[in-house]
Amino acid sequence: MDRSQAKQCAKELLKQMTVEEKIAQMVQVSYADVTREEALQWAKRGAGSFLHVLGDNAREIQKAAGQSRLGIPVIFGIDAIHGHGLNDHATIFPSQLASACGWDPESVRRMGEVTAREVATDGLHWTFSPVLCLGRDTRWGRVDETFGEDPYLAGELGAAIVRGYQGDDLADDEHILACAKHYLGYGEATGGRDSYDTEVTERKIREVFLPPFRKAVEAGCATIMTAYGSIDGVPLTASRRLMHDILRDELGFDGFVVTDWDNMNNLRNRQMVSTDLSDAAVKTANAGNDMIMVSLEFYEAMLQAVQEGKADMASIDEAVTHILTIKYEMGLFEKPEKTGKPGCFGCEEHLDAALDTSRKSVTMLKNEGMLPLGDGIRRVAVIGANADDVHAQYGDWTYFTHPRPDPEHTPVRPYVTLWEGIRAICERRGIEAVYEKGCSVLPDDGDDLEAAVRAASSADVIVYAVGDVIAQFGETHDRADLNLSGRQYELFRRLKETGKPVCTVLIASKPLCLNETAEQADAVLCGFNGGMFGGQALAEAIFGELNPSGRLPISFPRHSGQLPVYYSQLPGWHGGKYCDLPDSPLYAFGEGMGFSAFTYSGLTVDDDLLLTVDVTNTGRTAGKETIQVYFRDDVSSLVTPVRRLIAFTQADLMPGETRRVSIQLNKESFALIDQNCETAVEPGTFTVYAGHSSKEEDLLSTSIVL
Ligand code: BGC
After folding, report:
1. What does the alpha-carbon distance between residue 549 and residue 597 come to, in Å, rounded to a whole number?
2. Fewer Cβ in 10 A, N or C end of the chain?
3. pLDDT of residue 375
4. Per-residue pLDDT, 597
């Protein structure tokens, strides 16, 4: 059934519903926060949705919902964020940030498709993914969940994963609902503080933060989640302007909106804009939130508001219609449970997809002739806690972390840590490999730097993993200081003193301040949270079995005090740098290298905005190049960024091969948001750049007139 037929059915059903049933339909219950009996009662009362419930428990709830007066099916939501990771047998992909390093919408689409199939096989309907916030202040604890700092890249990857989750038909048994979140500006909160106030104007919202959501809506994303914070003092939960006027009227969003966790209660308890819960309930519904996540108080509070004549029945009717429409479109009234594809967990196709995404995520940031390790290497020392820590490799949102932290949960195979990946290759090649942790990521009494130095001294080369652990990221875990914690720098210095070449490998949730561990290393690889096969992919790159092709979706600061360091800065900084630090990041957006090198020549853009450039692989290895296209509005009515990404594509090139690459640009890409918040391409000259990264020296440029 299509959306308009579904809406008709929803409106018919709405006529039969009591006020109590309508309000219950807007409630989403957290299974982990109620008893089984309470859960069943909520289902019989007609609660619209449950989250974080799997398998037979979900089936029992659906059965109870079937016994409610109207038998409206329940919709089950889950945080399947990089794979259906709350199920310990699911396929676990790299984090969104790691997968974004591939700059490959197709592999991200496939990640969505595989995840959807596994979620559906658990009988569930809906994932709270993707995160379309931008990771621009990397102190924020949830940077790992983003596709990085750039609106264009995040939008392309976001639209791709939405297509992967939802497929062409919401009623399809192997596809589920996507949920673009957190609407809006959550990643840009002041000081990198989770769910705090965001100091942006509507103009900036439209230019930077809205575009990825627009693309998700265009890709058909069926649900949107409201952010926690506030913008200019208005809680997002209470912003009818953003949720109704902009999201629905302007962007044409036609699905349903769910609040984030307990947002309704937060209006009264934290943000202090409501005197009581009834007022909070009314504000939440009137702003355009359709489903109320976990604030069970909503039910009584809204009923009271209705009885006291304070509620707007039209908002309630609209909300319920939105929810029921999607339920009809999904075919839940005929078949409430998705069956997915039994037996698909951990099947070859899914594991291959995870491995492929991990491989594409590996990003080499420095190589002074050390990699790939080749003949003549007899002994490799692998050092560092994160080299053999599946928790660090997985990052957030798996069965180790949610719905409750469960660090003791036995890790379920398959997965390959960096140490295991290196050991496997070494065994195959007859190379000796040793592992020593050396030091923990967090300060720890058990650190044994001497053991690590001994192991390193007798090796030919050192692979040193640095990074962070879950206590340092995730919700409510923002960091003021992005320096490596514990004794990680000290251990690096000691390893360096052995005189052996050191390859630093970052296994972390986000860009940390690598400082000397990058500046004095012989090679640097970035894996972020690489998923099941993150360690294998890094090991393959170290030994040249993989030619790394990742490009950074986010810039690396040299120092926390330099933040933000995203590439699309506005010009005009008096002096252009701090007096004690440069303005440049340690590694810039778009950076990344492989074992081949690429040169660019002959950049042109014709009158129809067809960009053409010749790209040559000047190396001795076949390799993949990501051709990045940026522009600058030379002179405009407002201050505009020094560069903005507007297109990219990839080319696999054999050694010595030159490829003429063409990319069709469109005029709208050159638009700015003017002072009246209108989208406009201001006539004049524009500089178009194409090349290897966002850095000026990596780009060719040409001028066009629009
Ligand atoms: C997070 C959301 C998540 C939700 C449900 C919230 O705390 O902000 O991203 O989807 O919980 O687990």
Report:
1. 11
2. C
3. 85
4. 96
Note the pLDDT of residue 55: 85
Identify whether residues 457 and 319 lie together within a single domain. Answer: no
Distance 490 CA to ligand 1 centre (A): 37
CA-nearest residue, atom 6 of ligand 1: 261
Total domains present in the chain: 3
**Directed axis angle between helix 210-218 and helix 151-166, to 10°?**
30
187 Cα–ligand 1 center, Å: 14
Segments forming the whole domain that contains residue 696: 598-705
Q: Are residues 324 and 367 in the same domain?
A: no
Are 402 and 455 spatial neighbours (Cβ–Cβ below 8 Å)? no
Which atom of ligand 1 is nearest to 128's Cα?
10
Please say which residue of 305, 329, 353 terminates a domain.
Answer: 329
Residues whose beta carbon lies within 6 Å of some atom of ligand 1 = 79, 128, 181, 260-261, 475
* Cβ burial, residue 606 (10 Å; 0-12/13-18/19+): exposed
- Please report whether residue 19 resides in a domain: yes
Ligand 1 centroid, distance to 292 Cα (angstroms): 12
Q: Are 474 and 614 within one domain? A: no
Handedness of CA 242, 204, 551, 133 (dihedral sign): negative
Same-domain status, 542 and 656: no
Pocket test for ligand 1, best of 52, 128, 402 (most atoms within 8 A of CB): 128
Residue in 50, 79, 133, 182 to alter for ligand 1 test, most ligand atoms within 8 A of Cβ: 79
Query: Tell me, what CATH number does 639's domain have?
Result: 2.60.40.10
Ligand 1 atom with the shortest distance to the CA of 181: 9
Nearest CA to ligand 1 atom 12: 79
The atom of ligand 1 lying closest to the CA of 81 is 10
Write down the pTM of the prediction: 0.98
DSSP element (H, E) containing 705: strand 699-705
Substitution site in 30, 33, 260 for ligand 1 pocket (most atoms within 8 Å of beta carbon): 260
In terms of domains, do 11 and 116 share one?
Answer: yes
Nearest CA to ligand 1 atom 10: 128
Which of 539, 562, 585 represents a domain boundary (last residue)? 562
Tokens of 262: 């307990």
Tens of pLDDT along 325-358?
Answer: 999 999 999 999 999 999 999 999 999 999 999 9
Q: Do 462 and 547 belong together in one domain?
A: yes
**Cα–ligand 1 centroid distance for 699 (angstroms):** 39
Amino acid at 270: R
| CA distance linking residue 654 with residue 186, whole number of Å | 43
49 and 127 belong to one structural domain: yes
Task: State the distance from the centre of ligand 1 to the C-alpha of 108, rounded, in angstroms.
Answer: 21
Between the CA of 161 and the centroid of ligand 1 the distance, in Å, is 18
Distance between Cα 261 and ligand 1 center (Å): 6
CA 61/CA 320 separation, integer angstroms: 20
In a domain, 142, yes or no: no
> Residue 14's pLDDT is what?
98
CATH, residue 529: 3.40.50.1700
Per the domain annotation, does 70 fall within a domain?
yes
Letter string b/e over residues 560-584, b meaning 16 or more CB atoms within 10 A of that residue's CB: bebbbbbbbeeeeeeeeeeeeeeee
Q: Which residue carries 């905005």 as its tokens?
A: 609
Q: Which atom of ligand 1 is nearest to the CA of 182?
A: 9
In this structure, the answer to whether residues 416 and 292 fall within a common structural domain is no
Residue ranges for the chain with pLDDT beneath 70: none
Give every strand in the sheet of 75-78, ordered side by side. Answer: 126-127, 75-78, 49-51, 27-30, 292-293
Q: Which atom of ligand 1 is nearest to the CA of 52?
A: 12
